[in-house]
Amino acid sequence: STWGKTKMAAANVNTNTNTNTNTNTTTQVFNINAVAPVVAQPKHVDLDPMHERRDFSSGLFGCLEDCTSCLCVSLCAQFYLAYLYNREGTCPLTCMCMPQPIMILAIVHRMKNGIFGSLLGDCLVTSCCGPCSMCQVARDMDHIRKAGYRID
Question: Residues 86-105: pLDDT tens digits?
Answer without folding.
Answer: 998 888 888 888 889 999 99
